[in-house]
Amino acid sequence: MNGGDPEANYAYYCLHKFHWKPTEFIEMSEEEMAFVIAAIDIKALNDKKHADEQKSKIRR
Length: 60
Description:
The chain is built from 3 helices and no strands. With 60 residues, the protein is mainly alpha-helical.
């Protein structure tokens, strides 16, 4: 995620993708928050890989 406060970036992602209020994310237990952050990181990585594959196919 880009710059600034990482926790705020994840709260922003949750707001837009999951329609959660920022407090819903911030008030999670440490374990819940860690799971959500890991899931977001995996999704972002998979999305980037998919986008890179699509760009590679276009260049051929």
